[in-house]
Amino acid sequence: MKMPVQNPLFPVFLKLENLRVLLVGGGNVGLEKLTAILRSSPATAVTVVSLTFLPALRALAARHPAVQLHVGSYADSFLEGADLVFCATDDPALHRRIVAAAHAARLLVNVADTPPLCDFYLSSVVQKGALKVAVSTNGQSPTVAKRLRAVLEAALPDELDAVLQKMPAIRKQLAGDFAAKVKALDAVTAGLAGAPATWPPPPGAGGRWPWARCWPPGPWPWPAGAPRPINRWMKTKELANY
Ligand SMILES: C[C@@]1(CC(=O)O)C2=NC(=C\c3[nH]c(c(CCC(=O)O)c3CC(=O)O)Cc3[nH]c(c(CC(=O)O)c3CCC(=O)O)/C=C3\N/C(=C\2)[C@@H](CCC(=O)O)[C@]3(C)CC(=O)O)/[C@H]1CCC(=O)O
Ligand SMILES: NC(=O)c1ccc[n+]([C@@H]2O[C@H](COP(=O)([O-])OP(=O)(O)OC[C@H]3O[C@@H](n4cnc5c(N)ncnc54)[C@H](O)[C@@H]3O)[C@@H](O)[C@H]2O)c1
């Protein structure tokens, strides 16, 4: 029997800085959405149309030269030249009109806090250097998404970014065809998934993130008595084997 799909949303990572965004509404919710957009993609060209603007939104826009503010009422003409639309006013009837006009123009729309009118949802975002993890609960609970973000932020080691920065150079050093490279990269990163990494660190190293923690190479093995970095997963699962 086919199992029902619990969450049919399809996750993607948009190059938002290559697109043009229309945001309608410059109040509290508009500020939240603009903050989320610019935190991930600060150079995005966002046009914000609103009758009024919160001072904090004006200040945020002033720090981002690609953001333009238009004082006035929404009109369908603002959809021309937009790739993506966000609605964040206090007028649900206006939101329904914007969605209809945007769909007629084949545009995708997010209506803040209104799942049935959304073509896509925003997610809670965990950022560690180049790593980005997006969390969605399929709209069931943004609060749980926010809590999970905090859990993941604390659990993922900061050193992970150093690992990511090194990976392109390591990949370049590898010889062989595509399949051989994939095999070598799997071996190098095995430590991230719990198995011992085969290169570096030296064989036999235990722990879930030993490679992440000692890259760029630090003292190995750890000098006797030196404090060893640990993380939450090690505490709960692997401390006994460490
Ligand atoms: C993740 C995040 C991204 C962002 O917005 O940047 C986000 N909401 C955030 C926070 C948040 N929003 C709300 C609260 C108050 C507490 C609560 O109600 O839970 C809190 C918590 C807080 O502020 O502490 C109010 C709210 N939001 C929605 C509804 C309607 C409903 O639930 O039916 C209501 C009730 C409105 C009302 O009652 O009137 C709906 C949506 N909110 C989504 C995203 C999409 C689903 C995401 C998913 O799949 O999980 C979706 C469907 C559409 C969308 O807006 O894109 C961001 C966390 C950022 C972070 O901190 O990490
Ligand atoms: N602020 C919150 O945390 C929160 C929480 C839950 C629900 N809500 C609901 O979300 C909605 C928005 O909340 P808010 O706090 O951002 O409200 P807000 O009043 O601060 O902002 C609404 C914005 O929409 C703009 N606007 C209204 N009509 C417009 C039009 N025709 N064209 C262009 N702009 C227009 C207004 O000028 C204003 O800037 C409200 O319905 C509110 O009840 C808000």
From TrEMBL:
A GO MF annotation of the entry reads: precorrin-2 dehydrogenase activity
Q: What class of enzyme is it?
A: oxidoreductase
Siroheme synthase central domain location: 129-154
Q: Which pathway does the UniProt entry assign to this protein? A: Porphyrin-containing compound metabolism; siroheme biosynthesis; sirohydrochlorin from precorrin-2: step 1/1
- Catalytic reactions of this protein: precorrin-2 + NAD(+) = sirohydrochlorin + NADH + 2 H(+)
Positions the record marks as coiled coil are none
| InterPro entries, A to Z | Met8-like (IPR028161), NAD(P)-bd_dom_sf (IPR036291), Sirohaem_synthase_central (IPR028281), Sirohaem_synthase_N (IPR006367)
Its EC number(s): 1.3.1.76
Q: What is one Gene Ontology biological process annotated in the Swiss-Prot or TrEMBL record?
A: siroheme biosynthetic process
What keywords tag this UniProt record? NAD, Oxidoreductase, Porphyrin biosynthesis
Highest taxon in the source lineage: Bacteria
Instruction: Name the PANTHER family on file.
Output: SIROHEME BIOSYNTHESIS PROTEIN MET8
Q: Which NCBIfam families match?
A: cysG_Nterm
Protein name, UniProt field: precorrin-2 dehydrogenase
